[in-house]
Amino acid sequence: MHSQLDLVQARTKSYIQGPHRFLIGGKAVDPSAAAEFHITDPSTGERLSEFASATEAETNAAISAARRTFDTGLWRNVSPAQRAQVLWRVANLIEENRQLLGELEALEGGKLIGAALNGEVWAAAEAFRYHAGWCTKIEGKTFKPSIPGLDLEGTTRLEPVGVAGLITPWNGSLVMSAWKLAPALAAGCSVVLKPSENTVLSALRLGELLGEAGVPEGVVNIVLGGGRTVGAHICEDARVDKVSFTGSTNTGRALIDAAKGNLKKLSLELGGKSPVLVFEDADIRAAIDGAAEGIFSNAGQVCVAGSRILVHTSKFDEVVAGISARADALAIGPTMDETSTLGPLISEQHRNSVSSYVDRARSEGIEVVTGGEAGDGDGYFYQPTVIIDHERTSCVWSNEIFGPVATVTPFETEAEALALANDTEYGLAASVWSENTSRVQRATRALRAGIVWVNCHGIPDMSMPIGGYKQSGWGREHGWNGVEAFLEHKSIMQRVMPDPRADG
Ligand code: ADP
């Protein structure tokens, strides 16, 4: 095992080694409990550092700080233009910290260093810039009520929802934190962020940068720890008005239960089993490239991964061969090696889960065209895998695997393709590959998914809302909808009295 710690800058190494403190009320707080979790490099299996979970008292303190700053108006009463300036400064600071943040994502989050530096860090900065623009555009409406005999004037005012709990997953820790923090802060909320126990470092650094940029102390609080302890506490606490969560569908269900005490508002961005529809009239080369990218990027650990590839029978063999060739050409390797094109899965436990799905499918008689085994070395690698599934009864057809495993299935007609695409309890994303514009329109209308890409797959943009139909979640992130998720609408009806000094 060759440590990747020797490949990062000294500053990153020292940041990884810790100590790892919570951010509560604007202060870096030393945990009172003993370390419970390890920070592990998934490329090598090396334990890099450790950290403690927040105790109940520490989680309470974080929620209290958020509550206090919200109730006193420390941030929500800052003028919109000033809030925008702070968010813009956060973006600049993220870019100034590009190397550190990128290396943290590569070592702790299993992101390829090139993608981390050029994709993740850029996207996190962009989230703050985009939301800086919204601060000054949060507007209500005016109405003329129609009650006979009364002179009334109606307006709506949009106000921050209150204290928001932000719970993020490990498959894009920096970006997911930014995607939640930026709209929450643009709206004027105070927050408690709990990153995944697998990836804590970039969120902690981001918390420090928010303070440097001018977010007042206590507006953003960060605690670390397990989902069922610290996460559940945040979801159950009646002082929290809203939770924005990204993670698995099962955890989403647990959150609904936890949130019911004070009926807190929930945004849930959950799992997917997204179809990629390749019609016979598609640019087949582009479709093969896009489908391969759609499932193998970030080793398939992407909620919108195109894990079910549906191909017209006339192009089926060509597409299977093309995607398999792309899979075989990927260079599996550690994330700090710039020649690696496929990194590891996040943990040994997760690799075992991916591997057991493929083994089960094999035992069900499914054909594995390429891959289907763990990768070499001490890291948690898994080979990019292509499976042919004619029957659609196997475990890989219906379950979200969250790994580099593509299921390819043939169809004869457009109607059959659309029915197969919708044959899932999920409804997060889909892509349609076709040069026929009417067919594209028919498909985008029929697909029950929160986002449909045409002749591309998996491209996010801050202006485009994203979220789930069916069991892929509640609400939308990004765009105006994402800001609105952190706002309440208040209607104000005023009776206008006649001027007592007027004649008659
Ligand atoms: P994954 O299985 O991909 O890690 P999870 O949905 O389990 O996805 O985790 C996503 C986030 O939700 C993590 O920050 C995790 O700690 C948190 N989490 C897990 N279980 C709960 C829970 N019962 N209540 C609140 N948060 C939870």
How does this model look, in words?
With 504 residues, the chain is an alpha/beta fold. It folds into two domains: 9-270 and 472-489, Aldehyde Dehydrogenase, Chain A, domain 1 (3-Layer(aba) Sandwich), CATH 3.40.605.10; 275-454, Aldehyde Dehydrogenase, Chain A, domain 2 (3-Layer(aba) Sandwich), CATH 3.40.309.10. It has 16 helices and 22 strands. It has helices spanning 10-17, 56-71, 80-96, 98-108, 113-135, 173-187, 201-213, 227-236, 249-259, 284-296, 316-329, 348-363, 395-398, 414-421, 437-446, 479-484; strands at residues 22-24, 27-29, 35-41, 46-52, 142-143, 152-160, 163-167, 190-194, 220-222, 242-246, 265-269, 275-278, 308-312, 367-370, 385-388, 405-411, 429-433, 451-454, 466-467, 473-474, 476-477, 487-495. Strands 14-15-16-13-12-17-18 form a seven-stranded mixed β-sheet, sandwiched between helices. Helix 5 (113-135) runs parallel beside helix 6. The radius of gyration is 24 Å and the shape is globular. The termini are far apart. The model has no long low-confidence stretch (mean pLDDT 97). Adenosine-5'-diphosphate (ADP) binds next to helix 8 and helix 9.
